[in-house]
Automatic annotation (TrEMBL):
GO MF assignments: pantetheine-phosphate adenylyltransferase activity
Skewed-composition ranges (Basic and acidic residues): 160-173
Statement: the UniProt record of this protein carries the keyword Heme: no
Lineage: Bacteria, Thermotogati, Deinococcota, Deinococci, Deinococcales
Residues binding substrate, per UniProt: S8, K40, L74, R89
Main location: cytoplasm
Top-level taxonomic group: Bacteria
Record protein name field: Phosphopantetheine adenylyltransferase
Pfam entry (one): CTP_transf_like
Protein purpose: Reversibly transfers an adenylyl group from ATP to 4'-phosphopantetheine, yielding dephospho-CoA (dPCoA) and pyrophosphate.
Residues with site note (Transition state stabilizer): H16
Keywords assigned by UniProt, alphabetized: ATP-binding, Coenzyme A biosynthesis, Cytoplasm, Magnesium, Nucleotide-binding, Nucleotidyltransferase, Transferase
Similarity field: Belongs to the bacterial CoaD family.
């Protein structure tokens, strides 16, 4: 049985990777599908191509995972998949469940597509792509919240902010060394 894990993955987080890694053990094949929505054009931090590259790099250790993209209704994409393929969705909290339940019912109603839910590990229940983007925009350390490929891409995207933070840290370190007696 195959699964399709759709999302914007802007960027992929450690929570996504947790769900994906566990799903890769359950399903024969998992397709990470970057859904692109023309109405959301310009609202993503990373371009579609950048997200695809990040995903490919982040999943190289998972041989039964492939990366794809699709625009339009997910049920139309599912109709093109191998019969019996399911939609895979990760859940972090009750609020996710309420939203995802509605979407799962709609996907079954309009496209006869089944949805399987995997709970993200508790340690990732607070991590979302939007939170990671915000922290990174201030030069914060997100390395524990995202795979290396995402962390590197975020550092490149916000290189000026990270450089400024590093310079401030270095200045503080030098000031502390000068204040210490006996030096």
């Amino acid at each position: 049985m195959n699964a399709v894990f759709p999302g914007s993955f802007d960027p992929i987080t450690s929570g996504h990777m947790d769900v994906l890694t566990r799903a890769a053990k359950i399903f024969d094949h998992v397709t990470l599908t970057v859904m692109h929505n023309a109405r959301k054009q310009g609202r993503h931090l990373f371009t579609l191509e950048e997200r695809m590259d990040i995903l490919r790099e982040a999943t190289t250790h998972l041989p039964n995972v492939r990366v794809d993209t699709f625009g339009g209704l997910l049920v139309d994409y599912m109709a093109r998949q191998e019969p019996g393929s399911v939609i895979l969705r990760g859940l972090r909290a009750v609020s996710d469940y309420e939203y995802e339940l509605q979407i799962a019912h709609l996907n079954r109603q309009i496209g006869d597509a089944e949805t399987v839910f995997i709970m993200a590990a508790t340690r990732w229940s607070f991590v979302s792509s939007s939170m990671v983007r915000e922290i990174a925009s201030y030069g914060g350390d997100v390395s524990e919240m995202v795979p290396r490929a995402s962390a590197a891409a975020l550092r490149r995207k916000h290189a000026d902010v990270y450089a400024e933070r590093e310079a401030e840290k270095e200045e503080q370190k030098q000031a502390q060394q000068q204040e210490q007696p006996g030096r």
